[in-house]
Batch of 3 targets.
Target 1
Amino acid sequence: MRTYSGHRQPDFHVRYRFFSPAEGGRSTPPRQHTRWDFLYADDDPRRDRLYMIWPEFIDPAGSVWPEGEVPMEGDALMFIVNPDWVSQHRQRIAVGTRGFFMEGSRKVAACEVTALLGLSVQPGKTWMSYGGVNSVNGQRGCARISAGSTWPANKRWQPA
Protein backbone atom coordinates (compact mmCIF):
# COMPACT_ATOMS: atom_id res chain seq x y z
CA MET A 1 0.00 0.00 0.00
CA ARG A 2 1.15 3.51 -0.73
CA THR A 3 1.73 5.51 2.44
CA TYR A 4 -0.66 8.31 3.37
CA SER A 5 2.30 10.65 3.79
CA GLY A 6 3.43 9.81 0.26
CA HIS A 7 0.61 11.91 -1.19
CA ARG A 8 -0.22 14.52 1.48
CA GLN A 9 1.23 16.00 4.60
CA PRO A 10 0.13 14.66 7.99
CA ASP A 11 -2.16 16.85 10.07
CA PHE A 12 -0.58 16.14 13.45
CA HIS A 13 1.76 13.80 15.34
CA VAL A 14 0.87 11.63 18.35
CA ARG A 15 2.48 9.31 20.85
CA TYR A 16 0.26 6.23 21.21
CA ARG A 17 -0.11 3.11 23.34
CA PHE A 18 -2.34 0.17 22.48
CA PHE A 19 -4.17 -1.43 25.38
CA SER A 20 -3.39 -5.03 26.27
CA PRO A 21 -6.19 -7.64 26.16
CA ALA A 22 -6.31 -7.46 29.98
CA GLU A 23 -7.05 -3.71 29.66
CA GLY A 24 -9.85 -4.38 27.17
CA GLY A 25 -7.65 -3.84 24.13
CA ARG A 26 -6.91 -5.88 21.06
CA SER A 27 -6.20 -9.61 21.17
CA THR A 28 -4.13 -9.35 17.97
CA PRO A 29 -1.22 -6.98 17.30
CA PRO A 30 -1.98 -3.65 15.61
CA ARG A 31 -1.15 -3.36 11.92
CA GLN A 32 -0.04 -0.49 9.70
CA HIS A 33 -2.87 1.24 7.80
CA THR A 34 -5.72 -0.20 9.84
CA ARG A 35 -8.30 2.57 9.69
CA TRP A 36 -9.15 3.16 13.33
CA ASP A 37 -11.52 5.98 14.12
CA PHE A 38 -10.49 8.74 16.52
CA LEU A 39 -12.33 9.83 19.68
CA TYR A 40 -11.39 12.87 21.74
CA ALA A 41 -10.68 11.90 25.37
CA ASP A 42 -13.47 14.20 26.62
CA ASP A 43 -16.08 12.65 24.30
CA ASP A 44 -18.37 9.69 25.02
CA PRO A 45 -18.33 7.02 22.28
CA ARG A 46 -22.01 6.21 22.89
CA ARG A 47 -23.09 9.83 22.50
CA ASP A 48 -20.47 11.71 20.51
CA ARG A 49 -19.14 11.40 17.00
CA LEU A 50 -16.14 9.27 16.06
CA TYR A 51 -13.88 10.86 13.47
CA MET A 52 -12.06 9.42 10.49
CA ILE A 53 -8.58 10.48 11.56
CA TRP A 54 -6.24 7.68 10.61
CA PRO A 55 -2.77 6.91 11.97
CA GLU A 56 0.31 6.05 9.98
CA PHE A 57 2.85 4.54 12.37
CA ILE A 58 6.47 5.66 12.23
CA ASP A 59 9.66 4.21 13.66
CA PRO A 60 11.96 6.06 16.11
CA ALA A 61 13.91 7.51 13.17
CA GLY A 62 10.70 8.98 11.70
CA SER A 63 10.29 6.56 8.78
CA VAL A 64 6.91 5.00 8.06
CA TRP A 65 6.72 1.40 9.26
CA PRO A 66 6.13 -1.06 6.40
CA GLU A 67 2.88 -2.99 6.06
CA GLY A 68 2.35 -5.50 8.85
CA GLU A 69 2.50 -5.41 12.62
CA VAL A 70 3.55 -2.23 14.41
CA PRO A 71 4.77 -1.72 18.01
CA MET A 72 2.23 -1.58 20.82
CA GLU A 73 3.46 1.93 21.61
CA GLY A 74 5.31 4.60 19.71
CA ASP A 75 4.70 7.50 17.34
CA ALA A 76 2.20 8.04 14.55
CA LEU A 77 1.40 10.68 11.97
CA MET A 78 -2.33 11.43 11.88
CA PHE A 79 -4.43 12.23 8.82
CA ILE A 80 -7.86 13.87 8.89
CA VAL A 81 -9.64 12.00 6.11
CA ASN A 82 -12.56 14.36 5.46
CA PRO A 83 -11.31 17.85 4.54
CA ASP A 84 -14.71 19.32 5.51
CA TRP A 85 -13.86 18.63 9.17
CA VAL A 86 -10.39 20.22 9.23
CA SER A 87 -11.61 23.58 10.57
CA GLN A 88 -13.47 21.90 13.45
CA HIS A 89 -10.44 19.78 14.36
CA ARG A 90 -8.19 22.84 14.10
CA GLN A 91 -10.28 24.33 16.94
CA ARG A 92 -10.05 21.20 19.12
CA ILE A 93 -6.58 19.78 18.53
CA ALA A 94 -3.52 21.27 20.21
CA VAL A 95 -0.32 19.87 21.62
CA GLY A 96 -1.39 17.88 24.67
CA THR A 97 -4.84 16.95 23.34
CA ARG A 98 -5.63 13.35 24.25
CA GLY A 99 -7.71 10.85 22.39
CA PHE A 100 -8.27 7.21 21.52
CA PHE A 101 -8.06 4.90 18.53
CA MET A 102 -11.44 3.19 18.31
CA GLU A 103 -12.85 -0.10 17.02
CA GLY A 104 -16.56 0.62 17.03
CA SER A 105 -17.31 1.93 20.53
CA ARG A 106 -14.27 0.17 22.04
CA LYS A 107 -11.12 2.11 22.92
CA VAL A 108 -8.11 0.11 21.72
CA ALA A 109 -5.32 2.69 22.15
CA ALA A 110 -4.68 6.00 23.88
CA CYS A 111 -2.79 8.82 22.22
CA GLU A 112 -1.60 12.34 22.91
CA VAL A 113 -0.88 15.05 20.35
CA THR A 114 2.79 16.01 20.44
CA ALA A 115 2.97 18.32 17.41
CA LEU A 116 0.73 20.11 14.93
CA LEU A 117 1.83 19.65 11.34
CA GLY A 118 -0.50 20.37 8.39
CA LEU A 119 -3.31 21.20 10.80
CA SER A 120 -1.43 24.34 11.82
CA VAL A 121 -1.26 25.61 8.24
CA GLN A 122 -3.98 28.22 7.81
CA PRO A 123 -5.32 28.85 4.30
CA GLY A 124 -3.04 31.36 2.60
CA LYS A 125 -0.17 30.78 5.03
CA THR A 126 3.11 29.19 4.05
CA TRP A 127 4.39 28.01 7.39
CA MET A 128 3.81 25.56 10.17
CA SER A 129 5.80 25.07 13.33
CA TYR A 130 6.35 22.26 15.75
CA GLY A 131 8.83 21.33 18.44
CA GLY A 132 10.75 18.69 16.51
CA VAL A 133 13.55 18.91 14.01
CA ASN A 134 12.22 20.19 10.72
CA SER A 135 12.16 17.25 8.34
CA VAL A 136 12.21 19.56 5.32
CA ASN A 137 15.40 21.51 6.01
CA GLY A 138 16.83 19.98 9.20
CA GLN A 139 16.30 23.14 11.29
CA ARG A 140 14.58 23.03 14.67
CA GLY A 141 11.18 24.63 15.12
CA CYS A 142 9.71 25.80 11.82
CA ALA A 143 8.94 24.12 8.53
CA ARG A 144 7.99 26.09 5.45
CA ILE A 145 5.32 24.13 3.66
CA SER A 146 2.57 25.81 1.70
CA ALA A 147 -1.03 25.01 2.54
CA GLY A 148 -2.26 22.33 0.18
CA SER A 149 1.21 21.09 -0.71
CA THR A 150 2.22 17.48 -0.27
CA TRP A 151 4.42 16.21 2.51
CA PRO A 152 7.80 15.37 0.95
CA ALA A 153 7.72 11.57 0.54
CA ASN A 154 11.46 11.26 1.04
CA LYS A 155 11.45 13.27 4.28
CA ARG A 156 11.07 11.85 7.76
CA TRP A 157 9.35 13.14 10.84
CA GLN A 158 12.04 13.55 13.49
CA PRO A 159 10.66 13.99 17.01
CA ALA A 160 12.53 16.25 19.42
Target 2
Amino acid sequence: MQSKVVFACLILSALLVLAVTGHPESSNNDEVLQEVGKKIGDQLDQTIGQMENLLEGSMKAEMSRDVDKAESGQK
Protein backbone atom coordinates (compact mmCIF):
# COMPACT_ATOMS: atom_id res chain seq x y z
CA MET A 1 0.00 0.00 0.00
CA GLN A 2 2.80 2.39 0.88
CA SER A 3 4.44 1.80 -2.50
CA LYS A 4 1.15 2.66 -4.23
CA VAL A 5 0.99 5.98 -2.39
CA VAL A 6 4.59 6.79 -3.31
CA PHE A 7 3.91 5.84 -6.95
CA ALA A 8 0.79 8.03 -7.03
CA CYS A 9 2.75 10.97 -5.60
CA LEU A 10 5.46 10.50 -8.24
CA ILE A 11 2.89 10.52 -11.03
CA LEU A 12 1.20 13.60 -9.62
CA SER A 13 4.54 15.36 -9.31
CA ALA A 14 5.34 14.55 -12.94
CA LEU A 15 1.97 15.94 -14.02
CA LEU A 16 2.61 19.13 -12.09
CA VAL A 17 6.06 19.56 -13.65
CA LEU A 18 4.55 19.00 -17.09
CA ALA A 19 1.88 21.59 -16.41
CA VAL A 20 4.32 24.18 -15.10
CA THR A 21 6.76 23.76 -17.99
CA GLY A 22 3.89 24.29 -20.39
CA HIS A 23 1.95 22.50 -23.04
CA PRO A 24 2.85 23.45 -26.61
CA GLU A 25 -0.80 23.26 -27.68
CA SER A 26 -2.00 25.36 -24.74
CA SER A 27 -1.63 29.11 -24.66
CA ASN A 28 -3.08 29.49 -21.15
CA ASN A 29 -0.99 27.81 -18.46
CA ASP A 30 -3.36 29.00 -15.71
CA GLU A 31 -6.10 26.74 -17.05
CA VAL A 32 -3.68 23.83 -17.28
CA LEU A 33 -2.48 24.43 -13.71
CA GLN A 34 -6.06 24.55 -12.44
CA GLU A 35 -6.90 21.32 -14.26
CA VAL A 36 -3.80 19.54 -12.95
CA GLY A 37 -4.45 20.91 -9.45
CA LYS A 38 -7.98 19.54 -9.56
CA LYS A 39 -6.71 16.15 -10.74
CA ILE A 40 -4.10 16.10 -7.98
CA GLY A 41 -6.74 17.01 -5.39
CA ASP A 42 -9.08 14.31 -6.66
CA GLN A 43 -6.31 11.70 -6.61
CA LEU A 44 -5.25 12.69 -3.10
CA ASP A 45 -8.85 12.49 -1.88
CA GLN A 46 -9.15 9.01 -3.39
CA THR A 47 -5.83 7.88 -1.88
CA ILE A 48 -6.74 9.26 1.55
CA GLY A 49 -10.10 7.50 1.35
CA GLN A 50 -8.39 4.20 0.53
CA MET A 51 -5.95 4.66 3.41
CA GLU A 52 -8.82 5.44 5.81
CA ASN A 53 -10.64 2.28 4.69
CA LEU A 54 -7.51 0.17 5.21
CA LEU A 55 -6.92 1.69 8.64
CA GLU A 56 -10.55 1.13 9.64
CA GLY A 57 -10.39 -2.51 8.51
CA SER A 58 -7.15 -3.03 10.39
CA MET A 59 -8.59 -1.52 13.56
CA LYS A 60 -11.71 -3.70 13.32
CA ALA A 61 -9.57 -6.81 12.87
CA GLU A 62 -7.43 -5.87 15.86
CA MET A 63 -10.50 -5.26 18.05
CA SER A 64 -11.93 -8.59 16.93
CA ARG A 65 -8.70 -10.36 17.93
CA ASP A 66 -8.74 -8.59 21.31
CA VAL A 67 -12.34 -9.69 21.90
CA ASP A 68 -11.48 -13.26 20.92
CA LYS A 69 -8.54 -13.27 23.33
CA ALA A 70 -10.69 -11.86 26.13
CA GLU A 71 -13.45 -14.41 25.52
CA SER A 72 -11.02 -17.33 25.41
CA GLY A 73 -9.43 -16.10 28.65
CA GLN A 74 -12.81 -16.01 30.42
CA LYS A 75 -13.75 -19.60 29.53
Target 3
Amino acid sequence: MPGELPCEVPECDGVMVVDPDNSYKLTCDKCGHIKE
Protein backbone atom coordinates (compact mmCIF):
# COMPACT_ATOMS: atom_id res chain seq x y z
CA MET A 1 0.00 0.00 0.00
CA PRO A 2 1.37 3.45 -0.91
CA GLY A 3 2.34 5.59 2.05
CA GLU A 4 2.78 2.77 4.56
CA LEU A 5 6.51 2.22 4.08
CA PRO A 6 9.20 4.88 3.72
CA CYS A 7 9.93 5.70 0.11
CA GLU A 8 12.72 3.57 -1.38
CA VAL A 9 13.49 6.22 -4.02
CA PRO A 10 15.85 8.74 -2.36
CA GLU A 11 15.82 11.21 -5.24
CA CYS A 12 12.06 11.46 -5.63
CA ASP A 13 10.57 14.94 -5.85
CA GLY A 14 7.92 16.16 -3.46
CA VAL A 15 4.64 17.00 -5.16
CA MET A 16 1.57 18.55 -3.57
CA VAL A 17 -1.42 16.21 -3.73
CA VAL A 18 -4.91 17.33 -2.77
CA ASP A 19 -6.83 14.87 -0.63
CA PRO A 20 -10.61 14.47 -1.04
CA ASP A 21 -11.06 16.55 2.13
CA ASN A 22 -9.15 19.43 0.46
CA SER A 23 -6.04 19.03 2.60
CA TYR A 24 -2.63 19.12 0.96
CA LYS A 25 -0.01 16.40 1.35
CA LEU A 26 3.60 16.62 0.20
CA THR A 27 3.95 13.29 -1.56
CA CYS A 28 6.73 11.53 -3.45
CA ASP A 29 6.12 11.72 -7.20
CA LYS A 30 7.62 8.25 -7.79
CA CYS A 31 6.05 6.05 -5.12
CA GLY A 32 3.32 8.13 -3.52
CA HIS A 33 4.85 8.08 -0.04
CA ILE A 34 3.70 11.02 2.09
CA LYS A 35 6.82 12.98 2.99
CA GLU A 36 5.27 15.07 5.77
